[in-house]
Design a protein that fits this description.
81 residues, 52% helix
């Protein structure tokens, strides 16, 4: 798994069919990238908060709130300097 994709992700890309495993933690409702966040990252690399919001169906402002809270937790737990 050198490239970071799961076997199911590779299968979806090979068959050009969106994933239907809605209970998978990598599932996102974004058929253009086969409903898989791993494929999204693999195809696009770093993305803006707006691009992330588009893919998961929430506003830029909400994504910013989530980012701020996550960074605060990371600093508190000394995972980020």
């Amino acid at each position: 798994m050198k490239h970071g994709l799961r076997a199911c992700s590779i299968k979806c890309m090979k068959n050009k069919t969106p994933c239907t495993e809605t209970d998978c933690r990598m599932f996102i409702e974004f058929e253009q990238e086969y409903n898989c966040c791993l494929i999204t990252i693999w195809e696009n690399g770093p993305m803006t908060l707006r691009q992330i919001g588009e893919r998961i169906g929430v506003s830029f402002a909400r994504i910013k709130q989530i980012e701020t809270k996550a960074l605060k937790k990371m600093k508190k737990n000394k995972l980020l300097l």
